[in-house]
Amino acid sequence: MIPAPTDMSDAARLEKAKDLLHSLANTVSAMKIFPNEHATVVHFVDQLTRRFTDFLDVHQKLQIGIEEYTFTYDGKAVYTDEVAVKSLPFFFFKDGLQILFFYQGLDRSEILELLELIKTEAQKPAEDADIVVALWERDFPNIQYYAPDEFLENRILGETRETRAMRNAPDLPDDLASETIEIRVDTSKFSQGRIELGPEDREAVAEAAARPAEDDPDLAPGPAETGAPPPAAPEEKGLISPAAAMDPTLTEDELLSLESMVRANRTISPQEEYVNLMVEIVYLEADPANGQATLDTLLEYHFDQIQHGRFDVAVLIIQKIHELRRHLDGQPEKAALLDGFLVRTVSPQTVEAVKALLAQKKAPDWESLLGFFGLLGPPGLGLAADLYEVAPDGQARARIVEFMDRTGAAQPALLAGLAERARPGLAREIVGLLARVPGGRGIPHLAAFLNFPNNEIKSAAIRALSRSGGATAHHILAGFLNDPDEEIRIQAIMTLDPAQGGGRVRQILQEATAREFRSKSLKEKEALLAFLGRTRSAEALGFLRGALLRAPLFPSKGTLETRLAAVAGLESMVTPEALAALQKGAIGRTRKVREACAAALLRLPSTGEPGT
User: Fold this and answer.
1) What's the confidence (pLDDT) of residue 165?
2) What CA–CA distance (Å, rounded) separates 114 from 109?
3) Which residues of 283-314 are buried (b: 16+ CB within 10 A; e: fewer)?
4) Residue 467 has pLDDT above 70, yes or no
5) Least CB-packed of 147, 223, 356, 584 within 10 Å?
6) How far apart are CA 538 and CA 586, in angstroms?
């Protein structure tokens, strides 16, 4: 006597059927996208064959019930897909198929023939496709089906009776119930705005108009609340029905265009269908090794899409993996696989894929590309920097800078590291981005430009530091005093904050008394001593006054320029003591010094009080 199956064996059999039908649906989806010889299709067909063989070797027969959007086994739902355009249950159901039978002996070639048959019928126009007829013509030896001939007729008749019942309409006479009624409509009269009534129609309208409203419950108004205003007509509310809003004068071409737009809006692209398929496989796969293999295949597809400029598909892949990751918090092993996948999407291989695209001289879809960068986050900053210089126009470059501003604010060090000599335009933008980082967190990273090889960029950094203020900015500015270019040194000293003097005053005093100071140009000497004057310190006053009034009998050029620079320093000090020193210099014996002091005194207030 054969023992009855236990609950455990029933559950295992149900789980096997569920895995098999998911595999069937996934294989059909893959075959719609790739040719039969593609590695993905071969893998899916082999996997499906193994699952059919394993099941049928044990149970000899697999009987699948077909509902509108669901496959059932032993009366239990084992697969559901409610998206009609890709739902495999709906594909069978719409043509009247109710049951599929698979028998032991089913092999790979017969399975592949079935899959090709499904693919062929699915690609036909709806009015030409019929999977039941296709199955009947093919007559598979180990695949049978059940589809009653009267399925569609009964369904249509049932819906008609249901509609009449809702309207309390009488049934058709028995002699007419099975008759086909042909209705001819002259569509050319649809847009004339007229309804032609025959004698019987006119008589019925007259009777309805003469009958009191209360005799016909369908026409009688419902009870109204006391004092409540009557409901406004649709026109009074500013609303019209969709039918009333349609233009009755649409041409045939316009109707066809509208129909194609609706059809396109209801269609899933092959790329999206493939991504959905792979993500679903990862979700259902219990074996980590198989899950990793599927993710590896999806990653290769991801890089291929990038290399061909289809960043919308790359974005879709990352979004779907993120979405799946949120649903797998309770499965650490599978969640780790997804985390590893996301890390690899921003690997050097991603950079190479984008560079390969740019090398083809093709204009990428910048909207999708920047959306892709946005998903990558900070790791995408390097890619954005590479693309800045090859962006086709200012608008594209502005979008890239917006991304870098939004993404790099959290890690300003990454932004500073992107500035390179070969990309001066981007380096200038990075200076501005660092200066705008909230809380001044980007200011310390402007020190990266102290040794930058481009003077224009260093000048931009100096201006940003000057606007920022603060001890950190002052410290970095002082670093530019050692720049090999005189113009950079002068710009830096002119923007130093005198209130931050302190040790900087002593440093410049030591520099001004050294022999090397004499070799500097007059312009740089004036800038340095003018900074000393702005500090208004006693040390600075003593040095400037001594330098001005020191008048050797035969002064060298360097000494003369130092005295002239001291004039500039005393003028910037604008204190009574500085004014007195200039007055003494104005009566000295060196003509150039006298003239410089006299000109400074003319520019200063006569009282010697600080001016505004």
Assistant:
1) 55
2) 9
3) eebeeeeebbebbeebbebbbebbbbbbbbbb
4) yes
5) 223
6) 22
- Please identify which residue in the block is written with the tokens 């002239």: 564
For the stretch 9-46, pLDDT in tens is: 788 899 999 989 988 988 888 887 778 888 778 888 99
The candidate with the shortest Cα–Cα distance to 448, out of 460, 439, 436, is 460
Question: Cα–Cα distance between 591 and 573 in angstroms, integer?
Answer: 23
Burial of 418 (0-12, 13-18, 19+ CB in 10 A): buried
Distance, CA of 511 to CA of 580 (rounded, Å): 25
Query: In CATH, which of 1.20.810.10, 3.40.50.720, 1.25.10.10, 3.20.20.300 is domain 497-612?
Result: 1.25.10.10
Give the span between the Cα atoms of 258 and 246, in whole angstroms: 12
Q: Which of 498, 493, 468 has its CA nearest to residue 483?
A: 493
The vertex-29 CA angle with 27 and 35, nearest 5°, equals 80
Q: CA dist 388 to 393, 425, 427, 457, Å?
A: 10, 9, 10, 17
- Residue 176: phi and psi, rounded to 5, are -110, -10
Would you say 127 and 163 are in contact if contact means Cβ atoms under 8 Å apart? Answer: no
Task: Give residue 598's pLDDT.
Answer: 94
Quick: pLDDT tens for 199-248.
776 676 666 666 654 455 444 444 444 444 554 444 444 444 343 444 55
Amino acid identity at 51: R
Contacts 24+ apart (CB under 8 A), 103-109: 103/56, 103/60, 103/61, 103/142, 103/143, 103/144, 104/56, 104/57, 104/60, 104/61, 104/142, 105/56, 105/141, 105/142, 106/52, 106/53, 106/56, 106/142, 106/143, 107/49, 108/45, 108/46, 108/49
* Residue 184 pLDDT: 62
Residue showing tokens 């009366």: 75
Taking the C-alpha atoms of residue 400 and residue 403, their distance in angstroms, rounded to an integer, is 5
Tokens of 477: 């500015």
Q: CB of 596 within 8 A of CB of 581?
A: no
User: How far apart are alpha carbons 68 and 94 in whole angstroms?
Assistant: 7
Residues shown for the chain: 612
Q: How far is CA 421 from the centre of its chain?
A: 30
Q: Give the C-alpha separation, 304 to 299, whole Å.
A: 9
- How do the domains of the chain map onto residue ranges? 7-152, 497-612
Beta bridge partners of 61: 103
Tell me: pLDDT of 349 over 90.
no
Place of tokens 């400074």: 600
Q: What is the residue whose two structure tokens read 């999206």?
A: 272
Q: Which residues contact 315 (CB under 8 A, 6 or more apart)?
A: 368, 371, 372, 375
- Note whether 584 and 550 are within 8 A (CB): no
3-state secondary structure of 410: coil
Separation between Cα atoms, residue 501 and residue 497, nearest integer Å = 7
Cα separation, 162 vs 426, in Å, equals 70
